[in-house]
Amino acid sequence: MRIPCRATIGAVIVAVSAVASFDDECDRSGGNLLQSFAQARRAEKYAWQSGRGNFPNFAVAEANGPFNLSETLSWSWHHPKGRFHTLTWGTVLDHQLNVYLSAADGLRKFDVDGQLLWEHHTLPAILMNAPAIYQGSIFASDTLGGVRALSMSTGKLLWHSNLSMPIGEDNGFTMVHEGVVFTAAGWRDPSPMGPANHMVKALNASDGQILWTYEPDAPVWNFLPLFPDRDTFVFQDMTGRVYRLSLQGKLLWKAGGKPGTWTDGGAALGNGMVYAVNNNNPPKQLMFHSEHSPGTLSAYDLNGTLKWKITTPRPPNNAPAIGKVQGWSGLSVILPICKQVMQGATCEVQAYDANTGGLRWVFHGPKQTGPLQAGDFEGMVDRTTSGVRPACLPNGWSAPSISSDGTVFVGNENGPMFALRDADGDGRVVGNDEVSSFDAKAAFSGSASPAIGNNLLAVASCDTLFVFKG
Ligand SMILES: *[C@@H]1O[C@H](CO)[C@@H](O)[C@H](O)[C@H]1NC(C)=O
Ligand SMILES: *[C@@H]1O[C@H](CO)[C@@H](O)[C@H](O)[C@H]1NC(C)=O
Ligand SMILES: *[C@@H]1O[C@H](CO)[C@@H](O)[C@H](O)[C@H]1NC(C)=O
Ligand SMILES: *[C@@H]1O[C@H](CO)[C@@H](O)[C@H](O)[C@H]1NC(C)=O
What atom in ligand 3 is closest to the CA of residue 303? Predict the structure, then answer.
C-alpha cells in the first residue's frame, strides 16, 4: 500500500511509529520533508538497539527488568512447526518495545504483546548472529556471506550485499554505528579452533557497499565490536588480543592476548576501559582439562595500557558486562565463567571491582545434568529436517545484561534464566531476595544477551523467545 506523505506527516506528530512507515511506503517527492523526517528518526531512541544493547553503555539498560522471572512470563514464541525447527539467537527492542529476533532461518518482528508482525526467511543462508536496528532498518549477516538490511516497519529487503566469503557458524553480533555496519567474515582454516572468521568488514548502512576489510593477528570468534565514542571501535580476537580501530578501519593500537588459545568470550566496554578475556590453555588441552581450566580477564585503558589482569578459576567463555550492581558501589565487571558441554560441571558468574579486579561476589550455577546442554539432543532430528544446524552447542552462559536497578540477567546452559543481585553485599548470591529463575529447558547462545526495556525483558533460549513483563 502506498501512503501519501502528507497524511503520514500528520500522523507522525502524534505517533513516532509513523516515522518508520514514511520512508518505506510513502511517495518520496518532497526532499526537505524527507530530511526533517530523517532527523526525527535520528532522534528516535531504541530501548535495546543491538544484541548487546545501546551505545555507550553496552549491556546496561536505562530501564528495569522484571526481577521475579518465575511470575512474569508474558508470552513466548517458537517455530510453528515445533520448538526445534529453528534456532533462536539475539533480541533487540525498538522505541515501542517491538521485539526483533534473529533465528537460524530468518528475522522476525513481534509487537510488545507477542503478535507476529513480519518474518523474513533466509534459508539456505543461516543467520547466527544477533541483529542490530538503526534509523529504521534492521541488519543481519548470514553463513553464505550475505549482509542484509530490512525495513523495520515492513520487513522488506532494502539491500543485500554479498561478501563472497562465508561467515562462520559462531554466535556473534552484527553491529551498526554512525552509518557503518560491522561484521566478521572469511570463515576458513587455520586457527587454534579450526575454521574461523579471519576478517572484520565494514559496510555502508545506507546501501551495503563494502567500505573496508581488516585482518586481525588471530581470527575473531563470536565477533562483538563495541564503540567507546563516535569515531572508533574496539573488539577482541579469539586469543583475547584487543584492537582499537577508527571507523575508517585504521588500527590505533592492539594489545594482549595469548597466542594459540581460543575463547568463546568477547570484549566489554565501560568505566573508561576495555575488558578482554582469554583462556590460558590451548583448545586441545582445554578439551581434556577439568572444569577448572583457568582463564584471564584483562582491563586496558582506552589507549591500550594494561591496568590490571586476574586469573579466572574457570574458562571465561562469554563477554562480561560492566555496570553498577546492587549491594556494591562503583562499577563491577560481571563475568560468566564455564567449561561448557561437560556433564557434571558447574558454571559460575563472578563480579569484580571494575577498577581493581578484586572479587566481589560469586554465583554458583547449576551442574550440567545431561551429556549435552539442555535441549540440544532432543532437537537434533527436527533441526536437521528443517535445514538448520543439528545442535546449538553454545557458550555455558548467555551474555549477561544489567538493568538500571543493578540486577544481572543471564541464561545458563542447563536451562534456567537467572535474575541475580547481591542485595546485602555479602559476596554470595543466594535466597529469594537475590536469585530468581525461569526454566527455559534449553541452553542460551552467546548472542543471547537479554534485551531490557521499561519493565520488559526479551531473551531467546536456543529454541524459544521469552518475553517477561513486570
Ligand atoms: C555470492 O558470491 C559468490 C561468489 O562470487 C557466489 O558464488 C554466490 O552465489 C553469491 N551469493 C549470492 C546469494 O548472491
Ligand atoms: C554511505 O553512502 C552514502 C550514499 O549512498 C553516503 O552519503 C555516505 O557518506 C556513505 N557513508 C559512509 C560511512 O561511507
Ligand atoms: C590516552 O592518551 C592521551 C594522550 O597521550 C591522554 O591525554 C589520555 O588521558 C589517555 N587516556 C587514557 C584513558 O589513559
Ligand atoms: C516470585 O513470586 C512468587 C509468587 O508471588 C513467590 O512465591 C516467589 O518467592 C517469588 N520469587 C522471588 C525470587 O522473589
Answer: 1
